[in-house]
Amino acid sequence: MLFKYKTVDTAGASKEGNIEAVNKDLAIAALQRRGLIVVSIRGDDEKKLLDRNIFEHIPLKDIVIMSRQIATLFEAQVSALKAFSLLAGNTENALLAKLLNQVVDDVQAGFPISGALAKHPEAFSTFYVNMVKAGEESGKLTQTFNYLADYLDRQYALTSKTRNALIYPAFVVFTFIVVMSLMFTIVIPKLTQIIQESGQDIPVYTKIVIAISNFFVHYGIFVLIFLIIAGLYIWRLSRSESGKTYLDGLKLSAPLFGKVFQKLYLARLSDNLETMLSSGIPIVRSIEITGAVVGNKVYETILKEAEEAVKAGSSLSQSLERHEHIPPLLVSMIRVGEETGSLTQILKTLSSFYKREVDDAVDTLVGFIEPIMIVALGLGVGILLASILIPIYNIAGGIA
After folding, report:
1. Which of 75, 207, 306, 336 is 20 to 30 Å from 95 at the Cα level?
2. If we measure between CA atoms, which residue out of 282, 349, 345, 331 comes closest to residue 310?
3. What's this model's pTM, rounded to 2 decimal places?
4. What is the pLDDT of residue 386?
């Protein structure tokens, strides 16, 4: 692979050029052996951020399929180098194919599979890499990739169900906002003109609707600017550690949705721990990785504290029971698992239990929200029209 580099020598003179190497690490090492300090280095196939296609991504489903295929090839006694080469040549996702080709180059250069995968955190999480590393150390790579495929499949199904179930309510809310905005800014002002020119007494409820309409017509742009600024503020807040913690705490305390999110993260927590402990990863390391990939800062903090407590000699159940976001049921079940030596089986049971809880909660929530949204949309539009059309009917009746 050809790399373009910028370097400076010990005298401070800059130099640019190209170097051929199997991968970036070997290219850097070769330049350093020449006594050069590497300022920047980029492969021909690497894209600058501004040139990158914003639609390029690797869906979780593709990683699931890839993991399953690797396990199948390993079972057929195909070498790691050949297995990744075959997958790179047969995957439909161009970004994943490029990534797998880079993995092939790294493995060929002597990197372990886990080390090669760790260079691509956008596709392979810390959890994934550590599972592969554990499989390499135990000699159970085939079983590990099957574990990973099963785990990612469960997470994909759980997350997809939760996300997809909320699409329809979100669509109804969006439609409601659009319809009301059009009514207040376009339809009602035209009808208001007819009512005011008639000279008749205007009912109080109609005056309220007209006042709201006038506000949006004259000050709607300021409302829009405020919403944009608020959206940017929330986005910026979500980029900071304290902001993420605050927003993730709001998720767990939100009415109706809070319990769903809590069960979702508990299912993920239990599943992560069970999968890693079953693969032979030590409990302290398992807790650390689970905290990094659980996806919620509140639970990440809880697991960091649990990690420190377990290092100090406490049991996992004792370290978790002091936190309000960890339900007593989970603590009790983990304690039973620790006392009976069946912690992985207990965690598997907890994962299945919370997954069912999420499924049931989402189904109930969607079944509850959908009719309320539809009724609210109908009532909102109906009240607005009635407030304006009744005076118009009175005008027509007076003329007749």
Report:
1. 75
2. 282
3. 0.68
4. 82
Architecture, CATH, for domain 60-165: Up-down Bundle (1.20)
Tell which CATH classification among 3.10.20, 1.25.40, 1.10.1200, 3.30.70 matches the domain 2-46. 3.10.20
First to last CA, the chain: 87
Report domain extents, the chain: 2-46, 60-165, 218-400
Q: How far apart are CA 374 and CA 360, in angstroms?
A: 22
Q: What is the strand order of the sheet 2-8 is part of?
A: 14-20, 2-8, 37-43
Convert the pLDDT of each residue in 103-154 to its tens digit.
888 888 888 898 888 888 888 887 888 888 888 887 888 888 888 888 888 8
Q: Which residues of 132-169 are buried (b: 16+ CB within 10 A; e: fewer)?
A: bbbbbeeeebbbbbbbbbbbbbbbeebeebbeebbeeb
User: Could you report the average pLDDT of every consecutive run of 10 residues in the chain (400 residues)?
Assistant: 73 74 75 75 55 62 88 88 88 88 87 87 83 82 84 80 76 83 85 78 84 89 92 88 87 85 90 85 88 86 93 92 90 93 92 88 79 82 81 66
Cβ of 92: how many Cβ atoms within 10 Å?
A: 8
- 200 DSSP 8-state letter: P
Q: What is the DSSP letter of 187?
A: I
The pair of three-digit structure tokens given for residue 99, joined into one six-digit string: 């990534």
Tell me the per-residue pLDDT of 298-308, one tens digit each, with 9 for 90 and over.
Answer: 999 999 999 99
How many residues comprise the chain?
Answer: 400
